[in-house]
């Protein structure tokens, strides 16, 4: 009976838990503005409309809209990547089902 009480107490506490995010703490997150970084000839820098789409489809759209992007990479969300800026690169962060989970942008 004591174990059952512990489980019930845990579930009640867990239902009250809310994740703590930077937005809740009003912390400003640094966003790199590519337009000020000196990428010449860039016609489009971000593709928010591609969130939730398959990676192959997103890659075709990005290369069609901006032919100067010669390095479109598919990266599993959470994998380590370099933070250097490349004007010809877009990283597509995908989940295990190969769907875009972060807004693709030049960098």
Automatic annotation (TrEMBL):
Belongs to the protease inhibitor I13 (potato type I serine protease inhibitor) family. Residues 1-22 form the signal peptide. PROSITE patterns: POTATO_INHIBITOR. This is Proteinase inhibitor i-b. InterPro entries: Prot_inh_pot1 (IPR000864), Prot_inh_pot1_sf (IPR036354). Pfam families: potato_inhibit. One of its GO terms (biological process) is response to wounding. One of its GO terms (molecular function) is serine-type endopeptidase inhibitor activity. It comes from Nicotiana attenuata. Gene3D superfamilies: Trypsin Inhibitor V, subunit A.
């Amino acid at each position: 009976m004591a174990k059952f009480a512990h489980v019930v107490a845990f579930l009640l506490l867990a239902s009250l838990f809310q994740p703590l995010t930077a937005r809740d703490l009003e912390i400003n997150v640094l966003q790199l503005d590519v337009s000020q970084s000196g990428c010449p000839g860039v016609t489009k820098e971000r593709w928010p409309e591609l969130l939730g789409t398959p990676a192959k489809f997103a890659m075709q759209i990005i290369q069609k809209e901006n032919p100067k992007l010669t390095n479109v990479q598919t990266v599993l969300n959470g994998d380590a990547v370099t933070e250097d800026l490349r004007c010809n690169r877009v990283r597509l962060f995908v989940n295990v089902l190969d769907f875009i989970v972060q807004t693709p942008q030049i960098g």
